[in-house]
Each structure stands twice: as structure tokens, then as C-alpha cells.
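Entry 14. Ran structure prediction on the chain below.
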Amino acid sequence: VLEQINQPAFLARVNEASAKLFAQLEKLSADLPQLFGKPRGKGLLVGLPMAEGFKGRAKDYTKAAEKLGLMLLIAGPDVVRLAPALVVSDAQLLEADRIMRDAAQAFIAG
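Output, C-alpha cells:
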């Protein structure tokens, strides 16, 4: 396993996936600033803070996403944590973005 993940091509793909994930989450937070703050983290371990009006409700948001088929984690009561597999595909990242947006709309609607 260590030999595989230390390959330059593998690491390059992880960096590419990370850049795509951060871009998606930055757009999500820009589109829904009432719900999310700016994403933070490194690589594919990313935290998405809840905005001021939704502090303490990260778990509620993750439950809305789970109902739509996306498993998310929390990093305390105020941060949604994403930790996709190192081999996540672009299609999977796009699907996660779609689900997160649908979950956000359902969550905001109550």
C-alpha cells in the first residue's frame, strides 16, 4: 500500500482531486453563505464550517445529506467534515456536490 501511495502519479491525482473538491466547496459556500463558511483543510481531509446562523447544527446537515445517499462526518458541532477515499473519481466528486446542494436546500427549508 505504501508503495502505491508514494507513486508520483498517485500523489498527483490526489492533489488534483483535492483542488477540485476545494473548488466545489468554495463555490458551495459562495452560493450559500448563509449556511457555510470557507472550507479549510489539507489534501482530501476538508472541513466546511457552518455559518453563524447555523452554528451547532453540523450533525443535522450531515443527516440531511445521508438521507440523499452521501455520508459526511462532523468535526465538532460547527464543522462538516469530508474525507473521501484517496482514489475518489471526478464523477464521485460531482455527485457529492450535487447531493450536498440538494441537502442544503432541504436543510434550509426545514
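The chain has a mean pLDDT of 97. Will compare against last week's run tomorrow.
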